[in-house]
Amino acid sequence: MDRLVITGGNRLYGRVKVSPAKNAVLPVIAATLLAKTPCFLEEVPALADVETICSVIEYLGARVKKEGQGLKIHVPEIGQTEAPYDFVRRMRASFLVMGPLLARSGRARIALPGGCAIGSRPIDLHLKGFCLLGAEIIQGHGYIEARAKKLSGSRIYLDFPSVGATENLIMAASMARGRTVIENAAEEPEVVDLANFLNAMGARVKGAGTKVVRIDGVDELRGAIYNVIPDRIEAGTFMIAAAISGGDITVENVICDHITPVLAKLQEAGVYVERGETTARVAAPDIIRPADIKTMPYPGFPTDMQPQFMTLMSVSKGGASIITETVFENRFMHVNELKRMGAKVKVIGRTAIVQGVKHLTGARVKAPDLRAGAALVLAGLAARGETEVSNIYHIDRGYESFVDKIKSLGAGINRIEDA
Ligand SMILES: CC(=O)N[C@H]1[C@@H](OP(=O)(O)OP(=O)(O)OC[C@H]2O[C@@H](n3ccc(=O)[nH]c3=O)[C@H](O)[C@@H]2O)O[C@H](CO)[C@@H](O)[C@@H]1O
Ligand SMILES: C=C(OP(=O)(O)O)C(=O)O
């Protein structure tokens, strides 16, 4: 398996362009199943997760063709209504095809996604919503089957503003009979982006980005040309790379409003932040100060930035930082790896107390999941000596050209490909 070898100590300087968002493009690709006529997604990041979702929709009947930086997707008809375990195992977001399949063909059979490193991640809220839309749900042999001749609009209250459940239900409701109202919906920018794409396809989705989303079902959706939003988590990761390496980076193609809490917390830590129209300049301070964070659904501090921020706090000076994870029950998998690099972190339940150290030291560590993997690379940038990060297939899931981008900023990093 490939690994990354990082020689710490280089300050990162320069400009780096953020790619289109993984978490926006995955639901948008799933949504293309709703249209009979072709869709064109103008810029699609080259990510392992994108390949997986494309394999899933191709299996279901889509014709996917790479055109320049984008993808042309045409689903003249749904051939299969089953997404096998092999796909869902590779990427939980595969479950997002359930809503479109149900809406378009009245039937979907999808392998039950297993638990993963960051938590058990149930899908009960998705299923509750599908039931309220009139689907019959049958579970067995590791699969979930949903059937409905025609979905009908309903009022759905989500116990938790789940991003995936909100997206799956918006897609299902877009072709249901009548009006659906989703209450306590997720407000993430990626939900808004999906709604914008669906509306470009002829759907009638209102209120995305607020707690109440109203969807008036239509009989048919058509293909659309679309460009998804920039990746706010990739942007935040580069900002921390600037801060932790003592550097000065201008991140291009960023919507600063999407990462307000990250920018605020960087400033609290003493980092210089300059917001531009579509850029953000981040420059490291002499001393990184401690700052507490608590992850929350949007617009709170994103859980997908928690491991990277913890890494930054691990080299802060002047006290402890308290990091509370409220979104996933097991998202501290990076702590033991960071400790191998000399970080001082104590975990009590869902809280981690981070006491900054003078410097981290290079070590051999394993990426336990996507963002934790990125966090370990950030730790390697700041550490003395050499850090080797293995299991980097996690990083490939969600960061386009990570090594090239970070290298272009001056990092001492190399990918070692195993024979
Ligand atoms: C592909 C994608 O967009 N992934 C993002 C999405 O994941 P995902 O859509 O899976 O995250 P959710 O918002 O659904 O999950 C948040 C919490 O709700 C719980 N839950 C969720 C659904 C459900 O039916 N029942 C239930 O209990 C989960 O276990 C978790 O504790 O949002 C997360 C939270 O911002 C991000 O970390 C992920 O990067
Ligand atoms: C947790 C993440 O992704 P996924 O939901 O695809 O596992 C992530 O992007 O950090």
From TrEMBL:
Known EC number: 2.5.1.7
Biochemical pathway: Cell wall biogenesis; peptidoglycan biosynthesis
Residue stretches making up the Enolpyruvate transferase domain: 7-406
GO biological process: cell division; cell wall organization; peptidoglycan biosynthetic process; regulation of cell shape; UDP-N-acetylgalactosamine biosynthetic process
Gene3D superfamilies found in the cross-reference section: Enolpyruvate transferase domain
Coiled-coil ranges (or none): none
Binding of phosphoenolpyruvate, residues: K22, N23
Reactions catalysed according to its record: phosphoenolpyruvate + UDP-N-acetyl-alpha-D-glucosamine = UDP-N-acetyl-3-O-(1-carboxyvinyl)-alpha-D-glucosamine + phosphate
Active-site feature positions: C116
UniProt: UDP-N-acetyl-alpha-D-glucosamine binding residues: R92, R121, P122, I123, D124, L125, D304, V327
One GO cellular component term: cytoplasm
Record key words, sorted: Cell cycle, Cell division, Cell shape, Cell wall biogenesis/degradation, Cytoplasm, Peptidoglycan synthesis, Pyruvate, Transferase
Entry's localization field: Cytoplasm
Organism domain of life: Bacteria
Residues bearing PTM 2-(S-cysteinyl)pyruvic acid O-phosphothioketal: C116
Main localization (coarse): cytoplasm
Molecular function via GO: UDP-N-acetylglucosamine 1-carboxyvinyltransferase activity
Family: Belongs to the EPSP synthase family. MurA subfamily.
Entry protein name: UDP-N-acetylglucosamine 1-carboxyvinyltransferase
Organism the protein comes from: Desulfocucumis palustris
